[in-house]
Request: fold
Amino acid sequence: VSKMNTYILESDKLDGDWKIIAYMKDFGEQAYFVNIPSKFISKDGKQAWLLYSGNFAPDWNGEKIEENPPGSHYGMVFQKIQLLK
Reply:
C-alpha cells in the first residue's frame, strides 16, 4: 500500500482514443474510485464535482499519508473543480 496517482482523460468516443487532461501525482494521497458524474457537471461544462474516496491506510508500513488536496479522507469526498481550456 502506498501513495496513488490519478489521471483525467478525455475522448470524443467512449472507446478512445484517449488524451490526458491532467496527471495528479499522489492525489488523495490514496484516492480511489475517482470520477466526475455527468449529473454534477455545470450546464456550461466549466465546473464540476470530482468525487472519490481516499486515505484508507494512512500509516500502513510506516508510510505517512497526508490530505492532498485538503479535505481528502477515508469516505466520500466532493471537490469542486473548474475545467480550463
The chain has a mean pLDDT of 92. The two ends are 35 Å apart (CA to CA).
